[in-house]
Amino acid sequence: MNRKVKFTFFKRSPIWLFCFCFLVSQTAKAQQQRSTVSGIIKDASTGETLIGASVRLIEIDKAASSNSYGFYSLSAPNGEYSLQISYIGYQTLTKKISLAGKLTLNLELASSNQLQEVVISSKSSNELMNSPQMGLEKLNMEGVKNIPVLLGERDVLKTIQLLPGIKSAGEGNSGFYVRGGSSDHNLILLDEANVYNASHLLGFFSTFNSDAIKDVAVYKGGMPAQYGGRLASVLDIKMNDGNSKEYTAEGGIGLISSRLKVEGPLIKDKGSFMLSGRRTYADMFLKLSSDTVLNGSALYFYDVNAKANYEINDRNTMYLSGYFGQDKLGLNKTFYFNWGNTTATLRWNHIFNSKIFSNTSLIYSDYNYAIENLQSGNDFRVTSIIRDWNLKQDFQYFTTGHTLRFGLNANHHRIEPGKISSSQTSEVNERTISTRNGLELAAYISDEWRVSDVVSLNYGLRLSSFALLGPGTIKSYDQDGNTIASRSYDKSQIIKHYFYPEPRFAINYRLAEQSALKASVTRNTQNLHLLSNSSASLPTDLWIMSSNNVKPQVADQAALGYYLNFNKDKFEFSAEVYYKNMRNQIDYKNAANLRANENVEAELLFGKGRAYGIELFLKKKYGDFNGWIGYTLSRTERSFDGIDNGTYFPAKQDRTHDLSLVAIYKAGKRWTLSGTFVYNTGNAVSFPHGKYQLEDRTEYYYGERNRDRMPDYHRLDLGATLEGKPGKRFTSSWTFGLYNAYNRHNAYTIEFEDVPGDATRTQAVQTALFGIIPSVTWNFKL
Fold it and tell me: Cβ distance 739 to 779 under 8 Å?
């Protein structure tokens, strides 16, 4: 009986399987005396740490990569070696070393002045072929500046929409969908802080100022165990640390926005700072209008990125970073709408020894909006806030053939869904929707194990826990939305608790030096949910937590991929197929009211979803002419008992075909030309199938959900950059752009209405947002 109990426990506990695999792999490690070389890799000209730099012992072809803070660790048998350090866009450095004990070697790489061609890759071929990680794309910020986008502003979010498996949320919109997920299924991190609304001006600009960004990593699937809380993807963005060598300034002046970044040493080679700001100025032109309504109106955004770091000693470094952004829209003395994000991250990097690296982070995140109606007798103000306090502890342990990661995370969420306040003379009644508090806890462990020269694994487990906390009065509803129970809870009392294990597994089988097969299986859970019944994410969309009525969303994804580098590593090809099964998906009843509704959970429907497809990606990484082609063939469906009798229907983000082409050409020493072309099947929508008259009013009859399609979408964008004359302390460039070059009128909305004078006939009225839009920006650096 005891043997049976122990066997069952082992079988059902993934953590025991994890420990078993790790211990078995270590049994032969002590047979030969080994030593470790470790250190930090930086940019020689700025002191910025380099993420993902390749470190290799040439004689035994043993390699590692620097982590998110530039730290690397490599163990090998004692002996004499050639240590090679390489990074895209930098001169390769080779040093002779003698391993006979722990060796600390901090290194600096110089930029490659001979690299005249454009480079759009930040991954080495060895990293791609050796790592079991799937669905990962990393953006090179130098390459991003050459890709034309709306209004000429370099934009990370619009650039990742050109990658296979990532789809735009709409014309000019910075929102995106990944492998069938909804827009809220994406975890967006800025220096580890959660960004809940990553857009300015209703999505036409993204929150992220490219001048302030050092590294961008997008995980479309196979997320490592250190990430959690979202179903579809992780967008991990890290800001520049600042130049620790000298003071510099750079910026740009465009038609509708300008930006400026300054950076420099706090103490040379010991600490640095970076401060970057950006603002649009459409409101300044409005002030020139003779119209009293327009000249008192607001239409702008501004944001500020700041970061500072200080190296206390060789083992300890502190970082403090923050972001503040605000949007203001409004008509003079009539209506105002403000929203914005605030984040702050305090981090401590500690190197225990050559094998153990630690990062401790205290993170604050705040998103809020306010709507004001200033009309006399009907004035009111609506406010909403979502605020996080997050404590993270992460460790990395480097040993022979293994990189072990483990850590803890505690995140307290506070959501104030809405507060309506008004003056004593207003006809609008004041109202406050109850605040909700939640505590999200997680523990994780993972191991990247190079089993042999051809096989490597990444296996791990994330334990996710969520508790909805008091105070508050909590209601329970039946399937029809009627209240069946109500109970009050005191402060910090647990209302509802959920616990989920999230196993992660990936394997890489290297077919040859330049090709590999990979497979992965992952589970993710999500306890914060976005309620939106609009076609695109709006700043006023409502976030809610898992509760007694709303269960955590769960997604299981399996993927298989083939990867190939060829033609002397100039070309990279990948093909990934995936299948994702989703539970506890959220939709809304007909005529659902999501605004200022105390009983909003009664308006929800719960069901399931599935998504599957294939992603093809061909990239030319180096040369005067390069770029990529990305294509996705996919299907995304949902099923709810209250919709179409539970049959699967296309989700609104379902697009059968999605194609993107990006081309960049360096035409001489100073000119760089670029272009992008995108095509995708139109979104799934519900058009009227009939109509009838009711009291001189036309009412439309709709059939099954999302069985119709918007027209196909396609667009060509062109860009050109003229660099200033080289060899000067002050440098400048001009960037020219042409958005929607052949003036395609892509449908943004289609409305159905009676033909004037003949109510028996119906006409479809299409609205397009943009025609041809030129842009020009002057950039400078000193």
Answer: no
